[in-house]
Amino acid sequence: MSTLTAPDFDLPDDLIAEAPPEARGIARDEVRMLVASRATGDLVDTTFRNLPEFVAPGDLLVVNTSATVPAAVGTDDGRVAHFSTELPDGDGRRWVVELRRPCGAGSLPDDRAQPGDRVALAGGGALDLVSTFPEDGPPRLWVAVPRVSVPVLDYLARYGHPIRYGCTELRWPIDAYQTAFAVDPGSAEMPSAARGFTPELVTRLVTKGVGIAPITLHTGVSSQEAGEPPYAEWYRVPAATAERVNAAHDAGRSVIAIGTTPTRALETVAGPDGRAHAGEGWTEVVVTPERGVRVVDGLLTGWHEPEASHLRLLEAVAGRELLDRSYDAALELGYHWHEFGDLHLISP
């Protein structure tokens, strides 16, 4: 994997946004946005509220309707279990989970867990650990069987809380982790690129003639090891969305994915001829510079850690040189990282 920056790159702690922008006194759509133009190479420092200035009538924004679930549950021994993804065996009985140590032990993945362990959860539930995920992987992600008396999403709604990393005392309700498009519960972590959208901003976009079309992709945990690719995730691309993608291209307009999740979903249903079609199921497509993109012309995203696998997808859309310059500028300008941070528009 090619990394974005030099090996000694270090993200300053003060650039990590641990609180929603509203807690910092600004509205959702007032977060900063760096616009990087693929056509000209120009970089523009602006705010997300100005998004309509950087898209054209007839362009199509593709958004993720997945809603974030309170996927973290405490265990009886002080650890935290992250419910990441229901496995695609169709019976809802096996999940990928991550166990993390208590904060006093660093809140790191718990590498002491073993196959066959039963982990007691809040509310009388339990997890039976079956095997590492993938089977030849390190003891960080696990295939587990939840032992709960109600459907897993109902159990999480009662006993879970949003996934948080590190040992912060900050607590935010699940509503802080939802986007304006969230209607289908299923994501372990927020599809955060769309967090800045407000009804007013959507109205301005639609009034300008910019289209908005939905897909659904339920995201898993984002704490993969350096260079570890994303694993299978459930998605749906409706026929109407595929038709609108093709119509936008036929009219010479651009398709802009609002996040890496719509990018993955759209590229899953993209044919070699660049035409999109409807699709639903589990995607294992990994978008890389070598593979390239077939239907996505632009991308709105957050700012990612130097060794995050998402940077491979960003490089596929932007190209390495523009991506390098964007990240250099974001660091110099003091942009905020992570799900409550600022945004990056890679424009066509």
State the oligomer: single chain
Helix content: 10-25%
Number of helices: 6
Gap between N and C termini, in Å? Answer: 25 Å
How would you describe this protein?
The protein has 348 residues and is an alpha/beta fold. It has 6 helices and 17 strands. The strands form 3 sheets. It has a 9-stranded mixed beta sheet, covered by helices on one side. A 6-stranded antiparallel beta sheet has the order 5-6-7-10-9-8, covered by helices on one side. Strands 4-11 form a two-stranded parallel ribbon. Helix 5 (310-318) crosses helix 6. It is globular, with a radius of gyration of 20 Å. Mean pLDDT is 90; it is low at 1-8.
Give a quick summary of the entry.
The protein is of the alpha/beta class and 348 residues long.
Name the descriptors:
18% helix; 348 residues; 25% strand; alpha/beta; nine-stranded mixed β-sheet
List the helices and strands and how they pair.
Elements lengths: L31 E6 L5 E5 L12 E5 L1 E3 L3 E3 L5 E7 L8 E6 L17 E3 L5 E7 L8 E7 L4 H8 L24 E4 L11 H10 L2 E7 L15 E5 L1 H12 L4 E4 L1 H9 L10 E5 L14 E4 L8 H9 L1 H14 L9 E5 L1
Parallel strand pairs: 1-17, 3-12, 3-14, 4-11, 14-16
Antiparallel strand pairs: 1-2, 5-6, 6-7, 7-10, 8-9, 9-10, 12-13, 13-15, 16-17
